[in-house]
Request: fold
Amino acid sequence: MARRLAAITGIQGYVPDYVLTNAELETMVETSDEWIVSRTGIRQRHILKEEGKAASDMGKIMVEGLLKKTNTKPEEIDMLLCATITGDMVFPDTANTISEKVGAVNAFGYDINAACSGFLYALTTAAKFIETGTYKKVVVVGMDVMSSILDYSDRTTCIIFGDGGGAVLLEANEEGNGVVDSILKADGIGRNFLHMKAGGSLKPTTLETVTAKEHFVYQEGRTVFKYAVRGMVDTVKQIMERNNLSNEDVNWVVPHQANIRIIQSVASGLDFPMERVMVNIQNYGNTTAGTLPLCLWDYENQLKKGDNIILTAFGGGFTWGATFLKWAYDPA
Ligand code: UT7
Reply:
């Protein structure tokens, strides 16, 4: 009998209704559709505009859709992990707020703050609770409301990010399908290149920090770009090697959607054909912890039971890694 794996048995994505186009950004900052498309591949992103709505409201929609799709009752969920850097509040965590909003009264859970790698970190962590037989049904949410921490007068960051994400249900699988292996990495030196300067214990919120716009994303884009390509290529190569996978064995590579040029560089570094690389950055921009579940959700109808899928991400921290999973179900 194959070892017990944690399989994704359902996925539900969500993006807010409001579409922020490159044309609208042209009216806000000194930029152009041509620059944004050629330098990033992004044509539009979705923004959570509704007054009083937050990450947990997006999570509620994702998880309710997921439960309906998988015919699961909220009280059956044992655990809910939420990967995000834009939770409703600094504390408490958003995982518990989502659980309360969907009626998952038996679930415990917590948030994972690993920026763009958050979904990989959370998926890998959650899988262990299924593999060990500790829990039967675990939900992993990956999402961000990046619009809540963006300076819409800074053209170097506001054009990149968007809001959205997705949720997956993990259940035990004895047929060899599910999360097979992960290589996760972190290097705290990366905090210098991608961070929010104030609002934490290092620099608590004051009038001065607000005036100095220190509660927004700060990024040194070129440096992050180089580390991102190297980190994703290295970990994908390592995970393929240790699982004896050639490029022909891999049905899909699912890279974090930060920049089409990063995605193309990763594919080129792996000598992997772009036809089997998932890309939807043009529609959503970079949704941080939301990009990987949004990709799987968009491509769900093309995935078949037993498909070999490599997920890879790179983000703030730095955090990065690659996960090898075998897809567990055919299209509906
Ligand atoms: O997901 C988390 C991890 N994050 C990433 O992986 C992001 C990695 N970085 C990137 O994707 C890219 O570095 C960016 C998209 C952020 C920037 O692209 P770039 O090709 O690295 O541009 P750059 O920063 O080198 O800037 C090139 C030029 C500069 O002008 P000068 O100094 O050459 O005159 C910028 O001022 O482009 C200018 N520029 C813009 N021009 C029009 C920067 N942003 C814009 C803009 N519109 N929005």
Remarks:
- The domain at 180-272+305-326 is CATH 3.40.47.10 (Peroxisomal Thiolase; Chain A, domain 1).
- The chain has two domains: 5-177, 180-272+305-326.
